[in-house]
Amino acid sequence: MKKFEERLDRLESLTDSIRNPDIPLEEALSLFEEGIKLAKTLEKDLDKIEGKIQILMNQPGLNDDKPELELFSDEDVGN
């Protein structure tokens, strides 16, 4: 399987090709089908990456920052 960036480049290339008004309808349909398949694989990869990010963000001990107790400073409130 190609890298994510390669597939994204291919999808952009397909999009540009489909926009060409001189392209035959059958070829445009074929490119469209390929684009839909590529878009679905890219979406799956993004979902996996998002899941990994959520796991990393929710791991205890990674966020050592103390909680911010005040939402607004005195200047923001106008005091």
From TrEMBL:
A biological process from GO: DNA catabolic process
Subcellular location: Cytoplasm
Keywords: Cytoplasm, Exonuclease, Hydrolase, Nuclease
Pfam family for this entry, one: Exonuc_VII_S
Residues of the signal peptide: none
Catalytic activity: Exonucleolytic cleavage in either 5'- to 3'- or 3'- to 5'-direction to yield nucleoside 5'-phosphates
Gene Ontology cellular component annotations, sorted alphabetically: cytosol; exodeoxyribonuclease VII complex
Top-level lineage group: Bacteria
Any one GO molecular-function label of the UniProt entry: exodeoxyribonuclease VII activity
Classification via InterPro entries: Exonuc_VII_S, Exonuc_VII_ssu_sf
EC number assigned by the record: 3.1.11.6
Function: Bidirectionally degrades single-stranded DNA into large acid-insoluble oligonucleotides, which are then degraded further into small acid-soluble oligonucleotides.
Subunit record text: Heterooligomer composed of large and small subunits.
Family assignment from sequence similarity: Belongs to the XseB family.
Name of the protein: Exodeoxyribonuclease 7 small subunit
Organism in which the protein naturally occurs: Teretinema zuelzerae
